[in-house]
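subagent[fold] <- orchestrator: predict structure for attached chain, return tokens only, no commentary.
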Amino acid sequence: MKLLAFVLALLPILWLMLALGVLKKPTFKACPIAFAAPFAGANTVGATIGKMISPQSIAIGTAATATVGNESKILRKVMKYCAIFYCNSRMCGICRKQNEIKNLFIKLFKKMEREETDMKILVCIKQVPESNKVEVDPVTGVLKRDGAASKMNPYDLYALETAFRIREQTGGTVQVISMGPPQAKQVIREAFAMGADAGTLLSDRKFGGADVLATSYTLAQGIKASGEFDLILCGRQTTDGDTAQVGPEISEWLNIPSVADVVKINKVEEDGITVSMDLPEEVEIAKVQFPCLLAVNKDIFQPRLPSYVKKTETKEREINVLSLKDMKDTDEMHYGLNGSPTQVQKIFPPAVNDKKEIWNEAGDVLAEKLFDKIVEMKFV
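subagent[fold] -> orchestrator:
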């Protein structure tokens, strides 16, 4: 726009140069349109540039300095400096643009550097039965999870909250990984609603019936297939197995250090994390180098509730599903029942005892009967 205005203003100036320089006309005759709109535009072109070549300024200047008749000479000299000033201003504009571009690239590289150094956190979560009324396969002795009412393992909620707190402090991403049938996507969706950035499900018929060893191996293979992570978090245990062994075993398969029973995150640094772990008779503080695995205890943080806004925002988010063929080790003898050294002899749900007795006796008789019953049931 400024360039167009400059060109329009230049046309009457060329006429002025011709009239004053070649035809030797006085100003008031040579430029009767000097104060008309097109020529007056020179007064506003680029502020300083327009003032330098404006006939209004030249006429006022010659009248004030008693140099009327020298307008053509003054204009010729001014035009030279005007051209130099215009070119210099354009170059300054280019330099400013270059500086803006340079600053833009600096910001971009800094952002890329932050993304490269941001912590990558992975949380292992599991879908567990919602109640103790579950069916057991009489042949394999494993739980029938397909179609059963389920929920996220409560201990994994504490691991998720720990991941979110660390992300809020250091930046980075929180991903979740789970192993189970397709319906296990439900707990991954729940993690999305809480704030997780991405999720992976390990699902294959050949993974079914795994004990803690095969489960930890499968998860370790899934983690390797999902990328590299600085920190892996697990709940201390699951409510359907209660072994508290899967987390430490994953770290062994991945050949990284681990700490179990973590009750507090003391400090997060670039090279490691300092935690407090609950031992039988004391609380020990240790610093672990990244990458590492932490199995957190309950009440380390109060888990947040899922957000309805995040739930709606992530309802179409893709969940990465990996099967045996996606693993680096595709030998099915290392997974599921085939890869489980634990042999279940018998598994059954607890028997329901609805037997009851009603006693209606005197106090001393009731006391004696109650004592005899306790002895009979071998409580004492």
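orchestrator: received. Logging for downstream: The chain has two domains: 2-97, 118-334. The CA atoms of residues 93 and 99 lie 10 Å apart.
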